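debug: dumping io for the single-chain case to check the tokenizer round-trip. Nothing else runs in this session.
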Amino acid sequence: MTASDEAGTGPVRARERFMLGEPVEGGVRNLILDSWQRCQSLGISPDGSELPYRPDIDLDGRLVRAARPVLDRLASRFAGSRMNVALADGGGAVLERRFGEASMARQLPAIQSVPGFVFAEQYGGTNGIGLALTERRLVQVFGAEHFAERGQSNACTAIPVRDPLSGRIEGVLCFGYPRAYADPQMEVLIRKAASAIERRLLAQSSARERTLLRAYLDSRRRAQTDQAAGDGRLVGLDELPRSGLDRHDRILLEQMATELISSARRTAVEVTLSQGRRATLLSRPVVSSSGVEGFVIEAILCGDSLPRLVTPDQAGRPVGLPAPATTTAGPPLGDLVGASDRGAEAPSAPERGAATRLLLLGEPGVGQYAVAARRRLELLTEASTRIGTTLNVTRTAWELAEMAVPRLADYVTIDLPESVLRGEEPTDAAGELHRTVVHGIGAARPFYRVGERVDLSPTTPHRRCLAGGQAVLEPDLRSAAGWISQDPEAAERLFEHHIHSLITVPLLARGVVLGIAAFYRARNPAPYGDDDRSLAQELATRAAICIDNARRYTREHAMVLALQHSLLPRSLPEQSAIEVAHRYLPAESGVRGDWFDVIPLSGARVALVVGDVVGHGLHAAATMGRLRTAVHNFAELDLAPDELLTHLDNLVGRLDRDEDGAAPATGNDGIVGASCLYAVYDPTSQRCTLARAGHPPPAVVHPDGTVTLPDLPAGPPLGLGGLPFETAELHLPEGSQLVLYSDGLLEDHYRDPDAALDRLRTALAHPNRSPEDTCRTVVEAVVPEHPADDVTLLVARTHALDPGRIAIWDLPADPARVGDIRAAAARRLGDWGLDEVAFVAELLLSELVTNAIRYGIEPIQVRLIHDRALICEVSDGSSTAPHLRHAATTDEGGRGLFLVAQLTQAWGTRYTARGKVIWAECALEASDGVPDLFESHLFENQFADIPEIE
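debug: decoded output
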């Protein structure tokens, strides 16, 4: 007992808690806990389990013959100690035992000293031999970790012994010893001993092949002695490179020879080589004097003009080779056709002048192992190109399943946490698994459906592979009690479909568990082996890396997409100039920097913007947000479209220089570029002013359905600098539609842009259609099925402001006319039914007109616009800008603009080619707030310096 056991925290205490049904956390290794849970599910009693005895064990088989010298050496090394060395077969039955002290054989009970008892886990519980067979690797069990009471006084170390050719577990080597003997060198020693046994097994196979080779050479020697001419000659495989065949041809012949040995039948096959040459491979059975049966493959070459092997004629006699009718010609590599009668007469000697080369010799089983190994390598090579073709988590999981079926498995299921599908890193992979993939042969698939939640018990191979981080192999599912106990009814359904063997593999990447892949075998009656488990592990590892890449991309893509959506308009502003509909469709791979905007301007005008930033990803989305903000700021200044693009061009140039300087530190490529189309529509004049910077021109749909593409000056893309932008002006009758879009709408790798433009014209050519219907039609008819670039579409149907809602007065620079304008404005407001805002409007006009007369120059014009708000505009020929300021108590002026700012919801200045316009908007729905102004701080001291009336 260890110190931890004495403290009540070691395996003894953990085992007691486990037997009582209490949770066991940290007191026992996962390897042992999994085994305890399996034993419990099997109903094994710790104090009453009986081991079966097999009297029919082979005490002189190839494993025993290979192991005896090694066991004798171990017994000599352990002489005088309490060591117990056991050799068991692949089923857990003990074949041989050796003891450090001979007296131990008499002192120990029969099950621990006599060969024949079976120590498989399903009979003996947790023990070295049974656990090594279950885990298929070196294991150590110490004291109370044994499930059975009888084994808790000892410790053991066990390791599987494999056939080096097939990789199949032939048996188990196990050391039993007192706990005090535990030493790190024990593991080193048992590995060396198992390796020595495996080398002797390989030597047995090599000796059999040497026996076959001698039998073949003797038969060839007798055949050549019997030949009168003796022209046929035998050449060894080592001379094949000197036959004029290149490396590709030699590999092709060797692969074909392996296939022929694996087929275990007499046949003749023609193989097409490079440069039009051909070779004929003959497969012959050969039997040694000791009874070892195998096949020999001969290659017949005849200079540059090799004899052509053809199929037998209708009479049954082959043409080109004087062989018996049982020798049948074969098709090219991989499609073996021939007689299966192993007792048929061998093909006769080759034609005169031909060279017969010994290509390969071996037993059919060995050939099968070689073919299987090559096919596994081919599968892994193909998997490296077919798994991970997309950055989609679910698609990558399906690619793993499609690669495995049917070459490795008949059915594959893959379970992933929902967080992985969303692109997040899983926090509890075992607790949130959902069936993501079910793939297999045939239509009937007796598994949980895709999308169902998968709850796994700790005894299942799925949970065991998660706990250990390694693939778990269940060769025979009918004896896998832990798997059956998960859902007996579902297990029975799988048995009805002949599913009998299983490999579960954790999908691990960067140490993070991303899910579980399960490979089931049904059609092949042979159980899965360790080579299959290694192949499944390798496939799953490659797929896990691709799934993790797809997951991280999904997360980053979602983050960038969320950022981009947050930077795009969430809702369009209310205005009366246009009716707007829009679409934004992100690219299937990567997020680009497209954006659009609708910006209300002064004077009831509205600006329409569509832009596109070069590149994709977070950098493009962030740059798009910066440019959209800049456009808003420049639009706030009421700049003309060409001036706005000039300012935007300068900004992109500065960003480009900043990124170029930051590239070595941040990894950015230092290139910033963008295109933009900026349009301003005025409903009072129905005029639209546009300018573009490297962006596709808009389309105009006239009220009668005619579609035109205005000849708008292209302008350079943003960021080049030093080049001018030009504007164009269009007259848009009421009901016209202005269609702005990004180049992703038309450009696609698989179609002609001109053809796409024609489709756009056709889709737009419908009169009296709403913008929303226009957007829907364009998306259905023009947008690519799999857009490689973002698609932005903005459709605006124009409205015209009723001339009766506009009032204009021209006046000279005469202060006496201010009263006339106030009176005229009051009358017009009365006509419009806006008496409630007349007082505020008169104050505004009085200030603005007075400023224009005092500080501006003629011509002076006043305009009132009755829109969603009452807009007051005063223009003059001066470019002097007014400034809002706080006036001192002693100042005679400076309070006018302050009053304007307080009485209106917005005010500002815009410049024209002939001067400037000062405008102010008065909210119509807020007129009831005017009396409150006289109670505010605005008028507290305004009249303090006026003398009292006497």
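debug: round-trip ok. The radius of gyration is 45 Å.
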